[in-house]
Amino acid sequence: MALDVSAHFGNTDYLTDATPSAWAKGMEGSAILAIAGHVTRLKAEGADITNFTIGDFNPSIFPIPQAMREEIKAQLDAGQTNYPPAVGVPELRTAIRNLYRDKLGLDYPEGSVQVGSGARPPIYAAYRVLLEPGDVLVYPVPCWNVKYYAYLNNATGVPVETQAENGFMPTADDLRPHIRTARVIALNSPLNPCGTVISEDLLREICEEIVAENSRREAAGERPLILLYDQVYWQLTFEGYVHHTPVSLVPEMAPYTVFIDAISKCWAGTGLRVGWAVMPPWLRSKVAPLVGHMGAWSGRAEQQATAVVLSNEDHVATFNEDFQAAIKRRLSLLQDGLQSMRAKGLPADCLTAQGAIYLSARFELHGKTIAGRKIESDEDLRVLLLEKAGVAVVPFTAFGYSEGTGWVRFSVGAVTEEDVKGALTRIEALLSGK
Ligand SMILES: Cc1ncc(COP(=O)(O)O)c(C=O)c1O
User: Fold this and answer.
1) How far is the CA of 120 from the centre of ligand 1 (A)?
2) Engineered SS bond to 362: which of 104, 162, 215, 349, CB 3.0-4.6 Å?
3) Residue with the nearest Cα to atom 1 of ligand 1?
4) Largest CA distance in the chain
5) What is the pTM of this model?
6) Taking the mean position of all CA atoms in its chain, how far away is CA 307?
7) Pairing status of strand 136-141 against strand 391-392
8) Quick one: which atom of ligand 1 is closest to the CA of 264?
9) Which residues have a Cβ under 8 Å from the Cβ of 133 and sit 6 or more positions away?
10) Could you tell me where the beta strands, DSSP code E, fall in 364-434?
């Protein structure tokens, strides 16, 4: 008979408190996952909810590219199951360099690419090799998860609040007060949670500030300021908008830029865990052993399959086109629906969808009583939409934005167009008091 281990756990109250380090005790779980847990509980109780909360895909609605599925199986059959190199298999690193050369116009040398199990390990590793304890990590809010990476690295996270009229992107003016003190600035475009894209002018101006600051630092013998540019959604940039990169706009940014990327979003492959960072080789040489020690490499078969599919222009183009169109249709439906509510005088609004899988929407209900509930916080608003309209969204407060603005994120990776229409009908009924 197996030993009942839990019978031997002893004084768990004491041990739960006394065992983890103070650092571990200070670590927070994702606020979005907590909201997703609320939705799952209500669904389990039988509630009919349209779930716009998760930055993920429902595989029955958005499967991965057919070629990718077949290629992973073929790679497993071919015995691609042993340890991959810590930097990633050479075929994938070459395919990534070719992708950047052909689609982004950036010819990176061998030794620049670090593959990991999704974007997160390269993100963590890049911050870890750049930041000393107490170093300043500046990040615009709302944004995805940077505050957790600041904590994990004992860095001082400095959030910089952005404005809706700038698509929630930071301006050079917003960042200027922090340029002297920052060790790393984190930017993300297309932006999670807002679905917006940084403009050429904005990005250029920010890069010029960074380059000027770095000239000063080099002359003074100080450590440089690095830009971590998270572009995991770049292949989901919608027509009418252009994805720009720091290095193509300002080539002097090359030594100071770390790109973050993955197939997670653009191939609906969040569970495949293939991501990468592209950076100067001297930095990659420090990131690689860390990813290796964590064993945070991507599965070998998935890496080989990604290399094959990435290298086949037809596979990629056909998938991207249909996938992007399907995402855009859902976002447009939402956008049109919310704007038509606004035109009717209802307290709803949204930004234009420019990229990624998200829409920024605003419900100006603070201080109002609706469906018998007084709305006093963004959390009240979230719960109202969830419980009274069966619509699950994430308030921008979960992305570090200030309380009380009424801005929320809609994510469309797990909904059908019918789901979107149904949700809009229920939101309109709620807002118009029907
Ligand atoms: C902006 C951004 N960067 C990185 C990631 C993480 O990607 P991965 O799942 O490949 O680790 C996400 C996931 O939601 C994201 O939104």
Assistant:
1) 7
2) 349
3) 192
4) 70
5) 0.97
6) 23
7) unpaired
8) 10
9) 153, 154, 155
10) 369-370, 373-374, 391-392, 394-395, 407-411
Ligand 1: residue of 30, 189, 192 to mutate (most ligand atoms within 8 A of CB) is: 192
- State the distance from the centre of ligand 1 to the C-alpha of 146, rounded, in angstroms: 11
Ligand 1 lined by 119 (C-beta under 6 Å): yes
pLDDT in tens, the chain (434 residues): 999 999 999 999 999 999 999 999 999 988 888 898 899 999 999 999 999 998 899 999 999 999 999 999 999 999 999 999 999 999 999 999 999 999 999 999 999 999 999 999 999 999 999 999 999 999 999 999 999 999 999 999 999 999 999 999 999 999 999 999 999 999 999 999 999 999 999 999 999 999 999 999 999 999 999 999 999 999 999 999 999 999 999 999 999 999 999 999 999 999 999 999 999 999 999 999 999 999 999 999 999 999 999 999 887 888 999 999 999 999 999 999 999 999 999 999 999 999 999 999 999 999 999 999 999 999 999 999 999 999 999 999 999 999 999 999 999 999 999 999 999 999 999 999 87
**CA gap 262, 319 in Å, rounded:** 16
How many Cβ atoms are within 10 Å of 432's Cβ, its own excluded? Answer: 11
Ligand 1 atom 13 nearest Cα: 55
Helix 66-77 × helix 300-310 angle, to 10°: 130
- Amino acid identity of residue 369, one-letter, is T
What SS3 class is residue 226?
strand
Question: What are the structural domains, with CATH classification, of the chain?
Answer: 27-56+318-431 (3.90.1150.10), 66-311 (3.40.640.10)
Please name which of 279, 172, 179 lies closest in space to residue 231, comparing C-alpha atoms: 279
Could you tell me if the CB of 190 is within 6 A of ligand 1? no
**Which tokens belong to 307?**
């290399």
Identify the CA nearest to 84 among candidates 106, 107, 113. Answer: 113
Tokens of 258: 């770390």
Residue with CA nearest ligand 1 atom 5: 119
Binding site membership of 275 for ligand 1 (Cβ less than 6 Å): yes
Does residue 268 line the site of ligand 1, with CB under 6 A?
A: no
Partners of residue 156 on adjacent β-strands: 136
Beta bridge partners of 411: 358
